[in-house]
Amino acid sequence: MAVDFSPEPVVADLAQRTAMFVRDVVIPIEERYQGVVRSEETRAALQREAKDAGVFAPHAGTEFGGHGLDMRGRAAVFEEAGYSLLGPLALNIAAPDEGNMHLLDAVANTSQKERYLRPLAAGEIRSCFAMTEPTPGAGSDPSALTTRAERVAGGWRIDGRKWFITGADGAGFTICMARTSGEPGDPGGATMFLVDAGTPGMTMIRHIDTLDESLFGGHIELLFDACVVPDDAVLGEVDEGFRYAQVRLGPARMTHCMRWLGIARRAQDVAVDRAGERRLFGSRQAELGMVQQMIADNEIDIAASRGLIMRACWELDDGHAAAQSTAIAKTFCAEAVWRVVDRSVQICGSLGISGDLPLSRFLREVRPFRIYDGPSEAHRWAIARRVVHRNDKANG
């Protein structure tokens, strides 16, 4: 059977146009703001440019103004967008909005899609996904969910505290995970609620100071205190929230990998350019054996990451749960991207840790990827557990 990794012509064309757009339009703005944009005006301007270039919303369905790419198609385009820290924001494929669009498309009813998905896909509003809680609440173990939602007249009352909620500052709505049955530690009993900005009882407590800064809208602590939402705020079915979370998380893990792979490529390009022009010990730095080893190891990590992403995307597009392949890809890519950026800093020496190159910013931005969307340790535990289960099953 023939194996062909080249993208479809329409995808290849969109990826090429995305690469040109990122280099010509986005990177100059990234350099101006050192990769951190907090202005809605700048966000809107970037997205207008992306629309004019015909590269906006590659993942969204055509009925919502997007290109309707499957996961394999997204891999090529998202990687090109991720070549700049601001590329995903410009194309409207940044976290958490991109993952929320996927979730809404899969779970929301027609009315909810019109009210939330359509303006989100158009970039008219932003969103956030509120699951993570302070200890002892939900984090690496979602079943520890403590936020509760109780039935009241005409709807639901939500009470609980969330933190590290990316993009919450200025979001038009929040998808809030709350327990509607059972107790913390139970594997079921969660429900997703669509909570509009300004709903009484939902309060932004603070911006959490974090290592990374480039994700728009910050990482926020939210308080839900007697926050009442109507019955039609339920996303999907009551008590099915954990199942819907898996619909979102597998693809979202892969799109994170795609975007950060673009930054890894950018870091490698910066390092190779520097090594090619710098002379020391009588030769170009790029001709020194230890530098060549780092360059080669970067290429290996980039190629291996891309292959694992494509394998997981193929399984997702084919309708498989892909839990093992997405866990493997996420764990490897999160660590490989860090290695690539770290080696690139080392190749560039003192310049690498300065603000004259973007590498130190990249290093700060990619480090948290080994924690969010499941830390590497939790993924390794799950990967090993599946392998042991498979072996036990095979041996009767």
Explain what you see.
By secondary structure, the protein is an alpha+beta fold. The protein has three domains: 9-121, Acyl-CoA dehydrogenase/oxidase, N-terminal domain (Butyryl-Coa Dehydrogenase, subunit A, domain 1, Orthogonal Bundle), CATH 1.10.540; 127-241, Beta Barrel (Butyryl-CoA Dehydrogenase, subunit A, domain 2); 243-394, Butyryl-CoA Dehydrogenase, subunit A, domain 3 (Up-down Bundle). Helices cover 51% and strands 15% of the residues. It is built from eleven helices and ten strands. The strands form three sheets. The protein has a four-stranded mixed beta sheet with strand order 1-4-5-8, covered by helices on one side. Helix 5 (97-107) packs antiparallel against helix 6 and helix 8 packs antiparallel against helix 9 (323-352). The longest helix has 37 residues, at 241-277. It is globular and about 80 Å long. GO terms for molecular function: acyl-CoA dehydrogenase activity; flavin adenine dinucleotide binding. This is Acyl-CoA dehydrogenase family protein. Keywords: FAD, Flavoprotein, Oxidoreductase. Its cofactor is FAD.
